[in-house]
Specification:
single chain, about 180 residues, alpha+beta, Peptide Deformylase, 5-stranded antiparallel beta sheet, two-stranded parallel ribbon, 3 helices
Length: about 180
């Protein structure tokens, strides 16, 4: 089932997400809905708060965004960033909750993540490049942060009118959204 995506300005996007309460078939159905919602919106990552659930879960599929054989597709439950590299890289980001807004964000090049997969098995793994960037972006959603919080002040000032329009529901998307 395609879920509506919560837009910039909604309070669920600013709260620190809580423990994932679902298990078994309910968890598997929610994950399937997350995948369907993300693909319908042409996204490469989606966090539970973006569909109105303040739960510590996100899905990522960078394989569809590039021809890079090192792409990543996975489910991340209760993720914890264990370590990041000192080396940082700037890259333009966007967000399904903030349609048609993009900006350059500086993030660590590599990240070590501890997380559970969709079978509730624990893993600890290093990620770099695009995978590391998307993981950090989605992880920020679980912490109540948005990529716009990381923009330089001048860039943020330049997009403020767009952010206000999104908050007021004055934006068109090809996917369902819920506005504050």
């Amino acid at each position: 089932m395609i879920l509506p995506i919560y837009a910039y300005g909604h309070t669920v996007l600013r709260r620190r997400a809580e423990e994932m309460p679902l298990r078994g078939e309910e968890l598997q159905q929610f994950i399937a809905d997350m995948w369907e919602t993300m693909y319908n919106a042409s996204g490469i990552g989606l966090a539970a708060p973006q569909v109105g659930k303040s739960w510590r879960l996100f899905v990522i599929d960078t394989l569809q965004a590039s021809e890079d054989a090192d792409g990543l597709k996975g489910v991340f439950i209760h993720p914890e960033i264990v370590e990041t590299s000192a080396e940082e890289v700037e890259y333009e980001e966007g967000c399904l909750s903030i349609p048609d807004v993009y900006g350059s964000v500086l993030r660590p090049q590599r990240v070590r993540l501890r997380y559970m997969d969709e079978h509730l098995q624990w893993h600890e793994r290093d990620f770099d490049g695009v995978a590391a960037r998307v993981i950090q972006h989605e992880y920020d959603h679980l912490e109540g942060r948005l990529f716009t919080d990381l923009l330089k002040p001048l860039k943020r000032a330049r997009i403020q009118k767009k952010l206000d329009a999104i908050r007021k529901g004055k934006v068109k998307t090809r996917y369902p959204m819920i506005f504050p």
